[in-house]
Design a protein that fits this description.
427 residues; alpha+beta; 9-stranded mixed sheet; disordered N terminus
Amino acid sequence: MSEGTKCLSREIYNKMVRIKPFAAVRPPKQYVEEVAARPYDVLNSAEAQKEAGEKSLLHITKPEIDFSPIIDEHSQQAYDKAVENFKSWQEKGWLVQDDKPYYYIYAQTMEGRTQYGLVVCAHTDDYAEGKIKKHELTRKDKEDDRMIHVRIQDANIEPVFFAYPDNEKINAIVARYISGVPEYDFVAEDGFGHTFWVIDNQEDIDALTALFAEIPAFYVADGHHRTAAAARVGAEKKAANPAHTGQEEYNWFMTVAFPDSQLKIIDYNRVVKDLNGLTPEQLLEALKEDFDVCEKGADIYKPGRLHEFSMYLDGKWYSLTAKEGRYDDNDPIGVLDVTILSSLVLDKILGIKDLRTDKRIDFVGGIRGLGELSRRVDSGEMAVAFALYPVSMKQLVDIADSGNIMPPKTTWFEPKLRSGLAIHKLS
């Protein structure tokens, strides 16, 4: 870090977020498409085993797939295999560490839309102090699992996904680099494009560090458990180090941070196994107390605005529009469509009290399309499906800024970050 960056006042750093460059462990160009993989939590072990080629990062993030039959992903044997594979990938030259700290740009292209993120290290203290803001609760068991992976590898193998308030000066630096030749550029099997540049000019590195010192907050878009786990590992290492100075690499963790204006949240929908003892006709009648109900026929119907839902029931689609007075526009949580649906339908009519634990409900990311909802109902697996209008980035930011928490399964960001383009070592 240059003297100019060091001279940024402690007062500014205390108010704003901190970032720093890092020497990424990453694949040489010729291996990137073979190494890069979908995140650990978007596919199960059987899917990962089928998808993983010889060099795939899935052998490191989901090491249970190296056994036949597949073993428990939380077993010591699986954790040991993860460490062995990470070491082996480096020995074989499939992963190589850069010789000095850099920032990186990671662009994702989906359906003609591209978003440009900066791969940086964020500070664990900023999470503890609330400058890295969350909008979801985490589960301790999932945090514990991610914490083990960070601890045993002494590295952040997969990044988390942050948003930050759009900044023209940051955008200008990014724009200069993306006009040049990228380090990586490939289209994955799902059709999404992934492009990667290295920011290797020290003046630009220092400028980005200084510019982020003016950014008031990061917002966790995807990766709440990985963010919490990284912060816990940092605190654990700090407590174990009597000579702790605050400058150690373990105080930092890897994220890809995107300007909030470039991000798009897609719908996150619900399917329910039964009608809580009601007939379809009784359900429709019960809904009319709080919603204007309109039959739309057999063709898929997608909600077109906030407070409008679509429902698939008994071979037909319906629109449900919440009546005036059934929600509070001044309540950042109460005004959310997930809250309206949970309160007035799932709880009040269908008897589902806890979305986190009730086995009668499942959640379907909008990336699968609304046809997935009708398919699961038509198959007899589910009795009814509900599609929601997507949450906006403004709603997410407002809720995070107010210190509130969204209901479970509210936001779905797509495309997902590809793992393996960069890894951050903690020492």
